[in-house]
Predict the structure.
Amino acid sequence: MNIISTKCFLLSALLTLNLTVFAQKISLTDLEVEHLNNPLSVETSAPRMSWKINATAKETKQASYEIRVGTDKNEVSKGKNIFWKSAKNTDQSVLIAYDGPALESKKRYYWQVRIKDNHGNTSPWSAVQYWQTSLKPADWTAKWITVSGKDTSARSPLFRKEFSLKKPFKSAMAYITAKGLYEANINGQRVSDTYFAPGWTSYKNHLQYQVYDVTAALKSGVNALGVTLGNGWYKGRIGFNNQKNFYGDTRGLLMQIEVEYNDGTKETINTDESWKYAYGPIMASDIYDGETYDARMEKAGWANTRYKEDASWTGVGMMEKGPERLVAMSGPPVRKREQFKALKIFKTPAGETVVDFGQNLVGWVMLKAKGAAGTKITLSHAEVLTKEGNFYTVNLRSAKAQDIYILKENTEQIFEPHFTFQGFRYVKVEGYPGELKPEDLTAVALYSDMEVTGKFSTSNALLNQLQHNIQWGQKGNFVDVPTDCPQRDERLGWTGDAQAFANTAAYNMNVAGFFTKWLKDVAADQQPNGLIPHVIPNVLGPNDGASAGWADVSTIIPWDMYVAYGDRRILETQYESMKKWVGYISSVAKDNLWNSGGHFGDWLFYRPDDDNDGRAAVTDKYLIAQTFYAHSTQLVINAAKVLGKQEDADRYAKLLADIKAAFVKEYLTPSGRLVSGTQTAYVLALNFDMLPEALRASSAERLVANIQNYGNHLTTGFLGTPYLCHVLTRYDHNDVAYKLLMQESYPSWLYPVKMGATTIWERWDGIKPNGSFQTPDMNSYNHYAYGAIGDWMYRNMAGINGDESAPGYKKITIRPKPGAGITSVAGELDTPYGLLKSSWKIENGIFKLDVLVPANTTATVILPAAELKDGKETSNKSEIGSGVYHFECRMAQVAAK
Ligand code: RAM
């Protein structure tokens, strides 16, 4: 080609490029399979694909899609060798199930999608994405290995093996799991940036394994594998009864690396009799107590090749396969997230050296130190200081929460623990050689790596801090399972807390995968008679369960996830468990009344110390139980309808009518008073529609009167709190809901904020107004349950609402309800369809709302008053499609309402 024709060619290429760009009015982003980006361990035979549509035109909807799947990336992108394709005229773009020929195990499938929209635009084919299928049981050829003899040492064993790859290879996958926790290395490098693998599940039922693409970590020739094991949840201390070895007394490792050579042949490297082990520098490690690391015991280069010292290592012991089922990991892994510099280092009145990181967080401290060999540095963790300013750990109960580092010879080292995490804002440092400087410490937050989906801010700084505290309560307690607290000798998957917070959690972050994983354990640990344990995974007694509002997690969270993510399969998978739970209640109920068994009731409700006036807000526990009996039954009806099980729906509808009738007979006086006159009683009765229609408005008045009687304070505990403001708003007392929200004195959401909280507290008065602490027996400063108000803030302040009839935000309602003199709110939610925004401000008496509606959805916008267009007022309700919109209305009208 001569120069001129090259130029012409370039010009025409550019033109084509420009034209294509111009023509691309729609494109596809955020492609996912089973809620994950290119997942490596998909267990289902019908993986579901989702995509989001980027569109410039308003009112864009998908008219049709075309998906193609194959096993070769290049060919898929050229449309060749496609073994499943699907083209449908539909606006479904979330969770489309693969429906082709049976998938092979441990194989990567590539896929691509393009769509047409309602305006006649066609998107280009999306980038090629993939999912990889999990192993079938017969694929496991590795053997379980452990130490030789009994596994009684507190130290962490290091397992090691070298092997050689003799030919050029194209791919290598590692499949790893452990009893205990593992940290795996290849050629001296961690195989991944994830922590606390294999995660915590109901180990006796199933144990997760992880899949890593280790192609880049391996090399031709000799390679080394090195894996450290820790006790973790499996063998370490678990629960408040000082249990050890709960799941088993022997740590074990199962690892299989499958290499595919360029010539198509394969080789597998397994854990087996050929491995060796020795004890390393982790002298003791336990989730509650912390870790002791003696750098003098390090074995330099042990996880790499050319480590000759392993001549003196011991041959491993072999372990029988247990009864557990190995399952592919389905939720997000734990990763390192935010890091915090030391804000200040100071001496307490007691003379201790303490570091303040400014945020109560969950994770650990990375410590830089240099000193004489044998120097012992102890880091202790605490959430709060006493009113005198001293380091306070009594509320950690028996959890030592201490990391101890013993230095080797005078070289600078950076320490961090491996198999433990602590909940802390302050760290006490003892034994540090030389002067401790802020740059010697970094606090690292670790939690399940969920994508942040929600943003919420207002013109009020205290509310913004509350939202911050809610988010940090979530971060600290979503460490592989949803826990009540992250710091004391507990840290358990308390079901009541999880159900109270699930909706708020789903606004803040994408928790679909996280809860899908945990719900499997809810079903796995459910007793054959339907009883749901108090904590999941269950480490209490098998029959410690069936508490109203706790066990109902089995119906509540599946439904919440269905509504938030449009995930019908969660309902399908959990449906039997949901029914079994309602079946359990029916089996213990008499005349349709659930009035037996032990219940936590409205846990941690308002209760003054010296209660001569009888102001404690005690709600009859069986009254509460009856409302949750109804709620769970209602959710089974909802699920039955979604799943097309009409007979079930009818049967449970009949049951529900009986449950409500029994409630009215037992707990409501003819004039409309509940036998417990508490806020929680009215809130639950109203929220779950327990009362005859005619009495609802007056009951809401009683609720308001009660709130006023406490000087506009809430008195609710774990069960009433999540619904309190919702009920007030629903029954036209939005102003009272705002009064509760804005209340700054105890008990209220903003009281802890005023007291300097950076997370949500377990109790309304974790720190009392005089600076003293609540009982150390149970006083966590990082407990998300009361953070459930976040759901109301997103729904009513930002106005962002989904719709049960078209879940996953396919249909949206934007209905902001301003109040309390707040002049602006900005809300965002990255829905399964894309980004949704709803932000408003009030200027010169005009309420101004800006909205972004994602493509392929529709929204109903309901303004607080009639819309103001060209100086004229029209309806306050509009139906819109995707795009950016602006609305205005007069605030005077709102105030007049
Ligand atoms: C304590 C915690 C937890 C709660 C149970 C009933 O362990 O407060 O959050 O769910 O009690």
User: Anything to note?
Assistant: The mean pLDDT is 96. Residues 484, 490, 494, 496-497, 600, 603, 762, 778, 783 surround alpha-L-rhamnopyranose (CB under 6 Å).
